[in-house]
Amino acid sequence: MRRFFIATPLAAEMFIHGQDAHHICRVLRLQVGDKIIVVAPDGLAGTAVIEELASEQVKLLLQDGIVEQKEAPVNVYLAQGLPKSDKMDYIVQKAVELGVKAVYPIQMEHSVVQYDPAKKLSRRDRWQKLSVEAAKQCGRTIVPTVEPIQGLADLFANLPSDVAIIMLYEGRTSQGLKQALMEKPAASYLLLVGPEGGFSAKEVAQCQEQGASIVTLGPRILRTETASLAGVAMIMYEYGDLGG
Fold it and tell me: Sheet holding 57-66: strands in order across?
């Protein structure tokens, strides 16, 4: 069944508006009597039957609640140095599929792309829409947030104190990711990944000041989009997600 996120709690009667209503009517061409899965903001899900259809509104009747265990047992937040081209689209989509809680696009010294304020807003809107679609596709019970494009200083200023920071660094380091996870067990991790040009010396120092564990993923230098997704997958696996 198709999955849709609604803005209200589960109730006997529910409504889907706007773009999702249009998608149901005009693209999927669902009919009265068809069933879908709806997910409320609190993560509760249920099956619902379509009672009324219009281009801007779909009325639903709740049938049954669904008990789902779709979210990871550990919170992983991905802080991704802005990459070139459309790589961020791919990273957001796949990171959501892998189970991240949020994505932080970070403007770094070696980031090639430079967005003006209007472009920052439009890119974030695009990435958030990709997050919604990926969450639907893989059966998530939450939609991960794509935060505004920001710098490292802003990221660290607003980061909760109980989040363990892990930095994937292409420079010399003897500590692997698995070792860092064993030495610093936590309920929440922030995974920091640099852009194509890597981290600057200043950024490495900033991360060290925040107590980040600086780790390697092995002897080969990975592309930024490979490193971020490999890092997320490894943390999830170590905590029993992804079949671990």
Answer: 3-5, 35-39, 45-53, 57-66, 13-17
Helices (H) and strands (E) in the chain, counts: 7, 11
What is the signed CA dihedral for 76, 119, 129, 6, rounded to 10 degrees? 100
Residue 90 CA neighbour count, 13 Å, CB half: 12
The domain of 198 spans: 75-238
pLDDT confidence tier of residue 244, bands split at 50, 70 and 90:
confident
Q: What CATH number did the domain enclosing 135 receive?
A: 3.40.1280.10
Residue with more model confidence, 69 or 84: 84
| Same domain, residue pair 152 and 47 | no
Contacts with 217 (C-beta within 8 Å, 6 or more apart), sequence order: 168, 176, 177, 227, 230, 231, 234
Same domain, 137 and 203: yes
State mean pLDDT over 115-142: 96
- Measured between alpha carbons, how far is 217 from 215 in angstroms, rounded to an integer? 7
Mean pLDDT value of segment 147-164: 95
Q: Which residues contact 2 (CB under 8 A, 6 or more apart)?
A: 24, 28, 30, 36, 37, 136
User: What is the pLDDT averaged over residues 82-106?
Assistant: 97
Looking at the structure, do residues 197 and 232 belong to the same domain, yes or no?
A: yes
Same domain, 86 and 53: no
The alpha-helical segments, DSSP class H, found in 75-223 are 87-98, 117-138, 152-157, 177-183, 201-209
